[in-house]
Specification:
It is a single chain. The chain has a two-stranded antiparallel sheet. The termini are far apart. It is mainly β. A hairpin with a 2-residue loop joins strand 1 and strand 2 (about 20-30). The chain has one domain. The chain has one helix spanning about 45-50, and strands at about 10-20, 20-30. It is about 10% helix and about 15% strand. It has one helix and two strands.
Length: about 90
């Protein structure tokens, strides 16, 4: 949430829930495309670059060993983003 909040003020639409060892939460922002360099809703390049390599606390209550940092790309990727509601895509005009 701290990384997401650097560019926009997110509103939680669905609180975190765990399914099959994967945590998921849904959030909204007022400005579609705020996390991309080109303003495209489905492009998260800026957010992924900002999240990649951020240290993460481990050894708390998780059931399996976790890599101690956010990895946005590659084989050890452990954070993903996707657009849920594309109807909000920014258009000029």
């Amino acid at each position: 949430m701290q990384m997401i909040s650097l560019r926009a003020q997110p509103t939680i639409s669905q609180y975190p829930r765990e399914q099959h060892g994967v945590w998921e939460f849904v959030f909204e922002v007022e400005t579609p495309g705020v996390y991309s360099a080109d303003g495209t809703v489905d492009n998260y390049d800026t957010l992924l670059n900002e999240c990649h390599g951020i240290p993460m606390l481990t050894g708390l209550t998780e059931k399996s060993a976790l890599f101690p940092q956010l990895t946005a790309r590659g084989q050890q990727q452990n954070i993903w983003f996707e657009t849920v509601n594309k109807s909000l895509e920014h258009t000029d005009g």
